[in-house]
Amino acid sequence: MMKYMIVIFLTAALIISFGTGLSAKDDAEKIFGNVEKRLKKLKTVSFSFNQVFYQKVADRYIKRPGKLWLKEPHLIRLEGPAQQVVTDGRTVWMYVPRNKQVTVSTFIQGEGGFQTPWSLFEDSKNKNAEYLGSEELNGEMCDILLLESAIQGGIPVKVWIERKRDIPLRTLEERENGDT
Question: Phi then psi for 179, rounded to 5 degrees?
Answer without folding.
Answer: -70, 150
